[in-house]
Amino acid sequence: MGMTASLRAPVQSSVEKWAWAAVVANTVIVLTGGLVRLTGSGLGCPTWPRCTDNSFVPHRELGSHGVIEFGNRMLTYVLVAVVVGTFIAVRRWSGSTREQRRLALVIALGVPFQAVIGGISVLTDLNPWVVSLHLILSMLLVATSILLVFRVRGVASGGLVRAATGRVISMYVVLWVVVYLGTVVTGSGPHAGDAKAPRNGLDPHVMSHVHAASVYVLVVLTALLCFELRKFPEGRLALLLLGVELAQGTIGFVQYFTDLPIALVAAHLVGGAVLIATGTFVLLAVVSSSLAPGTGETSRPARPTRSR
After folding, report:
1. What residues make up the domain containing 236?
2. Where are the transmembrane segments (predicted)?
3. Is 159 left (phi over 0), alpha (psi -120 to 50) or beta?
4. Quick one: 111 and 194 in the same domain?
5. What's the rounded Cα separation, in Å, for the pair 235 and 192?
6. Does the global pTM surpass 0.85?
7. Is the terminal CB of the chain with fewer CB neighbours within 10 Å at N or C?
8. Rounded Cα gap, residues 165 and 161, in angstroms
9. pLDDT tens per residue across span 34-78
10. Is residue 278 located within the same domain as residue 252?
11. 51 & 115 share domain
12. What is the pLDDT of residues 160-178, one digit of tens each?
């Protein structure tokens, strides 16, 4: 089924594909935004919403930095097209629920709001706290898109013991702490996005150790969750999350001891989005399963009905 046909008469499988497209697009914009900063192109277009005071497009004097920053702005329109397509697909799907339509609307509205935050970061000369907020909002959009995927799929519930719920919630809270501390480390480090951009004034070595400590806590909590879920299907998801954490942690340590090469920092950024996506899916799977009636019996949610 083509993309146009999937919007004219969407079925569950095509709506799920649109939701996954929103996850991927929001992850890609994290990467491209990171590359803008890593190449020192954060002020390649020195103002917003125009690229310069007199033009929406970069001129020759801005050089490659202007092209890179402008290219990232243009990719935002691709992201807008994807999330609007997702919203239309959900709205036109006969099996959609009110919650699913609201999630799709939040994602669609979140992208232009995110663009405004990006503009504010330019207007404040890449203030590290605003840049940090810019990244966190992208991660929130990734998490919300995963929630939409989960709701559209109607994932099976396995009747887990409720004790697993507390463990997975604790893990998820720490996961977000890890990601936020990562943005604080970035705000104190060398990749500011422009040679004249301010830093947050914190010691990058101290903050790196604080960030690493939060990673240790996250890995321990996830390992305990894997043990607790070892006899349930959700245990495989927890193991996948643990693998993502270990890979992301390895990249983080290597980049720290190799003076933050651009390629590894970019990989670490994408890894952060993958970490949020995987952790969100694990949270939803375990909470949904633990709230299912009975223990050990598989129950599937009823087919969604259209509610207006």
Report:
1. 155-296
2. 18-38, 74-91, 103-123, 129-150, 171-189, 209-227, 239-257, 263-287
3. left
4. no
5. 39
6. yes
7. C
8. 8
9. 888 888 888 888 888 888 877 888 866 677 888 888 888 888 899
10. yes
11. yes
12. 556 678 889 999 999 999 9
Half-sphere exposure of 43 (CA within 13 A, CB side): 15
The residues facing 299 across adjacent strands are 157
What six digits make up the tokens of 149? Answer: 């995927």
Please state, in angstroms and rounded to a whole number, the distance separating the CA atoms of residues 258 and 23.
Answer: 31
Only one residue has tokens 């790196």, namely 208
Could you tell me if 187 and 98 lie in one domain? Answer: no
User: Among residues 108, 138, 154, which one ends one of the domains?
Assistant: 154
Q: How far apart (Å, rounded) are the C-alpha atoms in residues 48 and 104?
A: 27
In a domain, 253, yes or no: yes
The identity of residue 294, as a single letter, is: G
H helices present in 189-233, as ranges: 204-228
Please name the residue that has the structure tokens 């339509």: 101
Q: Which of 136, 154, 172 is the last residue of a domain?
A: 154
Asked if 46 and 171 sit in the same domain, the reply is: no
Q: Is residue 112 a contact partner of residue 80, using CB atoms and an 8 Å limit?
A: yes
Based on the fold, state whether residues 74 and 178 are members of the same structural domain.
Answer: no
